[in-house]
Specification:
The protein is built from 8 helices and 8 strands, in the order ααααβααββββββαβα. The protein is α+β, with helices and mostly antiparallel strands and 223 residues long.
Length: 223
């Protein structure tokens, strides 16, 4: 987040008027596009969270992986099959264009139809440094031929993989122990977490969104 963006974020949050904050038409349109994307992503997180409470297979998977206690801390959700999100989002007032811009739906190259980007996957949201949801990563519960086990939101106006650290918005101040041996690219991290019961102190952790740390990620990791 740039300094002007951070300034406007704080001003909007606390209802502070910034004098002389005149924007061009192009800036206003760009800001509105980002606001629509962030709104859709926030709505999607609530949708995924609600799905999780209704899916026994997903809940049993979390229990098996010792992740039930982390559902609230990490906003874990679930993407059902079919175009559940696409249909629900339309009912909630979100256009297909906004969903596409947010990386929540994709387009079939053959027939041009839209479909949900995530299906039958556990969902973990990505946050920016201010805590806003900017994307998701999804993990298949059951292997499907031709489909990756782990899937990220495609890059959008608000999500850039090379400039992203997972859980850096609060340095994961939840109680946890991290037991993953590889970089975060294999997504071993979120699914190997053993959530601490509080007896071992408070872990603080963030992880890169790609195969390796790069200069942008190192910059974001600085306190």
């Amino acid at each position: 987040m740039s300094y002007p963006e951070a300034l406007r974020y704080v001003a909007d949050k606390y209802k502070i008027l910034i004098e002389g904050d005149e924007k061009s038409v192009e800036q206003s349109e760009a800001d509105l596009k980002k606001e629509n994307i962030l709104s859709a992503l926030k709505w999607a997180q609530c949708h995924f969270s609600d799905n999780l409470t209704k899916d026994k297979i997903a809940i049993d998977y979390l229990k098996k992986r010792n992740l039930v206690n982390g559902v609230k801390d990490f906003f874990i959700g679930y993407a059902t099959s079919g175009n559940d999100l696409l249909l629900a989002a339309a009912s909630a007032g979100y256009s297909t264009k906004v969903l596409l811009d947010a990386g929540l739906v994709k387009v079939n190259d053959q027939d041009g139809h839209f479909y949900d980007a995530f299906s039958k996957r556990l969902i973990f949201p990505f946050h920016d440094r201010s805590g806003r949801i900017i994307g998701f990563t999804g993990r298949l519960l059951i292997a499907q031929e031709g489909k990756p086990k782990y899937l990220n939101t495609s890059e959008t106006e608000v999500f850039r993989k090379s400039r992203f650290l997972y859980c850096h918005h609060d340095d994961c101040r939840c109680r946890l122990l991290v037991v993953f041996a590889s970089s975060f690219s294999g997504r071993n991290g979120p699914f190997a977490w053993c959530l601490d019961d509080g007896e071992h102190g408070c872990g603080r952790f963030s992880a890169p969104g790609g195969n390796q740390h790069n200069k942008a990620e190192v910059h974001h990791r600085r306190p």
